[in-house]
Specification:
- The chain is an alpha+beta fold.
- It has a five-stranded mixed β-sheet with strand order 2-1-7-3-5.
- A hairpin with a 5-residue loop joins strand 1 and strand 2.
- This is 2Fe-2S iron-sulfur cluster-binding protein.
Length: about 110
């Protein structure tokens, strides 16, 4: 069968398997874990931001608003748009409900203005 990698969330110590070519978020969801909030699943909303502390991965397209180049250099990525090449150690930093509500309000306001 296909190769898979172990993804370990540093704060909780929870680990799960992620198939090669599968996003970390999709693997997380399939195993019932709720490390980060889930939004668009397409790299645009920024809800599923994590920091990769160790390991190699490929990135799909992500919103530069939520992951500017300097953040990407520090390992900050969106779980929906990273695909492991090795075992990974990640740090999930779920956004608070207040932050999420603020971003949703900002997005809604921007959409109404257009």
């Amino acid at each position: 069968m296909g190769e898979s990698f172990q993804i370990t969330e540093q704060c909780s110590g929870q680990s799960f398997r992620c198939k090669a070519g599968q996003s970390v978020l999709k693997a997380m969801e399939q195993q019932g874990l709720k490390c980060v909030p889930v939004g668009c699943r397409g790299g645009g909303c920024g809800f599923c931001k994590v920091t990769v502390l160790n390991g190699d991965y490929e990135c799909g397209k992500m919103s530069r608003v939520h992951v500017p180049p300097e953040a990407l250099e520090q390992g900050e990525v969106l779980a929906c748009r990273i695909y492991p090449l090795t075992n990974l150690v990640i740090e999930c930093r779920p956004q608070t409900a207040v932050t999420l509500a603020s971003e949703q309000t900002t997005t809604s306001t921007q959409q109404q203005e257009q």
